[in-house]
């Protein structure tokens, strides 16, 4: 019954698309081209496996990414350096079983080595209290609200300070130790470079 978090594999993109589009109103729909763009460009694109089955996914981008989300743009206009959680989806049969918490522990471990802040949003128009409580329990706080013009959805913009980042930056700079848990995913886009967080 353990949860395994790992980088997505190309053959899983159709399953990721189906998970996303079955998630309900709290997640914007995707098409296969957008999922492919995530696969080629996202700094963090991991899936959760439970009992050998895909249980969810999380996609994230560093503040220097070429990402077209208006929510990402809202953060970038206000903060110079952050890691942005674009979306997290947990399969309905797996909700409440720890998959979301496992993802947030993993993405924070990734981000705090590279960025001073972790950013995300929660849509407010479709019963947001469970999602707001979940994020509050991880130390996120609302720093504003934004209406996504492209989807006419109001979002609570959330931010969390990553207290380990200054020590990591001062101790290692951009030269993190070469051990498996510090690695970034190999981007499949030709000419893509590993992110440094600066």
Briefly say what this structure is:
The protein is of the alpha+beta class and 198 residues long. Helices cover 29% and strands 27% of the residues.
Provide keyphrases for this structure.
198 residues; alpha+beta; 27% strand
In words, what does this structure look like?
The protein is of the alpha+beta class and 198 residues long. The protein has one domain: Gcn5-related N-acetyltransferase (GNAT) (Aminopeptidase, 3-Layer(aba) Sandwich), CATH 3.40.630.30. It is 29% helix and 27% strand. The protein is built from 6 helices and 7 strands; from the N terminus they run βααββαβαβαββα. It has helices spanning 13-21, 32-41, 70-78, 99-111, 129-137, 165-172, and strands at 3-7, 44-50, 53-62, 83-90, 117-123, 141-148, 153-161. It has a 7-stranded mixed sheet with strand order 1-2-3-4-5-7-6, with helices on both faces. A hairpin with a 4-residue loop joins β6 (141-148) and β7. α1 (13-21) packs across α2. The longest helix has 13 residues, at 99-111. The radius of gyration is 16 Å and the shape is globular. The N and C termini lie far apart (38 Å). The model is unreliable at 189-194 (pLDDT under 50).
């Amino acid at each position: 019954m353990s949860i395994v978090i790992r980088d997505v594999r190309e053959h899983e993109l159709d399953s990721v698309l189906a998970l996303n589009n079955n998630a309900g109103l709290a997640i914007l729909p995707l098409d296969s081209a957008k999922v492919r763009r995530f696969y080629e460009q996202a700094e963090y694109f991991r899936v959760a496996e439970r009992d050998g089955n895909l249980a969810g996914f999380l996609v994230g981008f560093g503040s220097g990414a070429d990402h077209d989300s208006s929510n990402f743009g809202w953060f970038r206009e206000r903060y110079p350096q952050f890691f942005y959680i674009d979306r997290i989806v947990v399969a309905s049969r797996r909700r409440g079983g720890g998959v979301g918490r496992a993802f947030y522990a993993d993405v924070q471990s990734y981000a705090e080595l590279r960025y001073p802040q972790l950013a995300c949003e929660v849509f407010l128009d479709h019963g947001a209290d469970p999602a707001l409580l979940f994020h509050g329990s991880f130390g996120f706080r609302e720093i504003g609200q934004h209406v996504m013009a492209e989807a006419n959805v109001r979002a609570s913009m959330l931010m969390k300070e990553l207290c380990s980042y200054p020590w990591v930056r001062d101790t290692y700079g951009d030269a993190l130790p070469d051990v498996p848990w510090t690695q970034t995913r190999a981007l499949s886009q030709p000419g893509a470079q590993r992110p440094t967080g600066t």
